Amino acid sequence: MLYCEKCKISAAGNIEKCPLCGGNLSGDICDDAEAFPVIPPVKPKRYLTFKILILISVITAAVCFAVNASTELQSWWLNYVLAGFASFWIIFGMAIKKRENPVKAVLWVNIAASLLLLLWDLATGFLCWSINYALPVLYICAIFAIVVLSCFLHLKPQDYIFYLILNILLGMIPLILYLFSVPDVVYPSAVCAAISIVTMATLIIFKGGALKEELDRRLHI
User: What is the pTM of this model?
Assistant: First the structure.
């Protein structure tokens, strides 16, 4: 079997040069071997990154456990560390699972992050920081993320309009809470509602036809 040291492949047949790089081959000619070179599979680099992140999470959790168990003040702040890692992996896993459709991934991450922020607020005494600041900022970032992705990826209107509308509706939640006097701080909710309204108006004015077609297709009106 002929072998290319540069490409790390085997090649069959009576050939003088590597079919991939054109370099010299070593070994013996074998006519009974496979006609095409055998290319070893290459694992995507994302798997290595995924494994490194898991290892970092385990090491950090182990170190925090050792420190927490060794302190005289036995308040198990380790629970918050573990909950933080769980939140990260939920968001990260959802983004990876929906990576084939980035704008859909933004929507699912937005929903998951909203629930996690509310749970964190409840777990820390419900000081309303999630409603006052975190949720409005999250919804604003989600709307801008879809707009930027649609421009950067040159998406067609039908590829992003539906998900943008759903994120806009989420962006109206702070306004609804404000009408019921839930937030203690008004301006983040007001800014979020204003951006949501302006984005919706822009869609209706400039993409009205595509918006109607997409709603008809999705909702079977």
Answer: 0.75
